[in-house]
Amino acid sequence: MGRLLAWRLSAMGHQVTLFESGSLDKPAGACHTAAGMIAPLSELYHCPLPIYHMGMQSLQHWPQWAKQLEQQTGTNVDYRQTGSILVAHPQDRSELLQFQQELTAKLGKENTGQLHWLDKNTLTKLEPELDRFDQGLWLATEADIDNRKLLPALHLALKQSDVRIHENTPVNCTPRKIHTASASEQFELVIDTRGLGAKQQIKGLRGVRGEVLVVETQEVQLNRPVRLLHPRYQLYAVPRADHRIVIGATEIESEDMSPISLRSSMELSSALYSIHPAFAEARILETRVNCRPATMDNMPLLETEPGLIRVNGLYRHGYLLAPALVVQVEMQIQQTTSDTAQVTRCN
Amino acid sequence: MADKLNLYGKAFDSRLLVGTALYPSPAIMRESVAASGAEIITLSLRRQSPAQQQGKMLWDYIQESGCQLLPNTAGCKTPKEVVALAEMSREIFGTDWLKLEVIGDDYNLQPDPFGLIEAARELVQRGFKVLPYCTDDLVVCRRLLDVGCEVLMPWGSPIGTGRGLMNKYNLQTLRERLPDVPLIIDAGIGAPSQACEAMELGFDAVLLNTAIARAQNPVLMAGAFRLAVESGRAARNAGLMLKRQTASPSTPTLDMPFWQQAVSEGEKA
């Protein structure tokens, strides 16, 4: 969120200084751990309608922003809008119906046929490797971006612009002031996007542990994110370049940042294996663990007071909501003549 | 006389117990708990690194509801795991109430009756007030009572299935054979009508989670379950009529002799 915002504000002509508690090459935040999905419909299953609306706004911005970033930096960020596919094993088939029922009810009149049922034939035309499944749902408008390419590209873009960057500098944020361990610096406006780093300042902000596996295989080729619906788990497999697949994610109400548990790794890997048995010989390249910053209503927080804007609580929706929130912050900045404090719950 | 639910010496007005997992957000969970009227709520801590108290923020939020906490041992498969987690939860939450779960089958989360009895015996000896999640098997239930459980929580059907009371014969047998034991239907309840039915059958309370948490409007559904449980209990107390073989008009039909129906049937033929 912070890097994207800095890049956009700099492009708009603002003088921007970015403070990063760690290194921009090895970010510690959930943005580095995530799978980079931009899936407003899939997320609507467990989220309220405003998340979907903001996600749809983000879907409008991402293609153009990704292209601009690629042109500016000469690097590829692998933005891809090929939709996502949902499948369930025969014994869990009711999960697909439940998903459709829930989305149809939530979308109401906004349901313009975004959900497409696939039979075995149409499913395997889109994803030949999913031949173990008889049916699925295709959410054609959904997208994803390779965050492991996006974040370095943003870093490069910031270095190319006139953004001042302070790495390995944990800070505290107050109106118009940034406080480091050794000094305070004055600014016209401070934007606090520290995630769980702002826990002391934002009441009710909590961390929700997520665990992810990255595997590599040349035996199974997926073309787009695949979600496996199951009564107890929400699992996805997102294909990346170089035959890598990101599998996630657990969701545990805990702020534990210790390495992935054996149970979680078994759940994730067995889910992948159940999508296609050839995944058995995939190599585990990486396990990732992080805590998503979330508010008690799991909605993003945009809090404004004179000289300070706080953006936080993006929960499991960082890439889904970031562009929509960036645009809202841009609007707030344009309206800075207003000297009143306000909290936007984004709902 | 007040119709209280008495469990381990404590009296409750509500006969609906609810879980705190699977909600869209903690805020909706707490609102749903309030709408359900529940006074006892379950919570799990197995996967939340309880030793380091990494889920404390949410636990505190749940505790603010003021309900009797019923920590569970979901995810445990052996009595040893159960006892370790139970001691940890007693320390964290300051309660010796425990919903005992020992899972015997990963897929349908069926309780392991053997591990359950062993764990219940140990926990009772350690001073816990154990509410075991068990199957509807009479002998297993008796063994749990033998080792000191004062409340039993037989399943309606497997957790999360929403299939309601799958084996009414077994459940009715439990009710008839254990008339003085508080029996709480735990798991498998998918609709308020099923909760109502459980109460009409004479069960003392109902415990559920998924049907509320996964509803499109959990708060509204929590209220629906509250009404259903109250309704079922009132119906049980009022005395349900028995089913009859023939229609029985509720208003006197003096002008229609009892043979009239037969004549009418004859005319049709």
From TrEMBL, chain B:
Subcellular localization(s) per the UniProt record: Cytoplasm
Alphabetical keyword list: Cytoplasm, Schiff base, Thiamine biosynthesis, Transferase
InterPro entries: Aldolase_TIM, Thiazole_synthase_ThiG, ThiG
Pathway: Cofactor biosynthesis; thiamine diphosphate biosynthesis
UniProt KW tRNA-binding keyword: no
Gene3D superfamilies noted in UniProt: Aldolase class I (3.20.20.70)
Catalytic-site annotation from UniProt: 99
SUPFAM superfamilies (alphabetical): ThiG-like
Protein family membership: Belongs to the ThiG family.
Assembly mode: Homotetramer. Forms heterodimers with either ThiH or ThiS.
UniProt name for this protein: Thiazole synthase
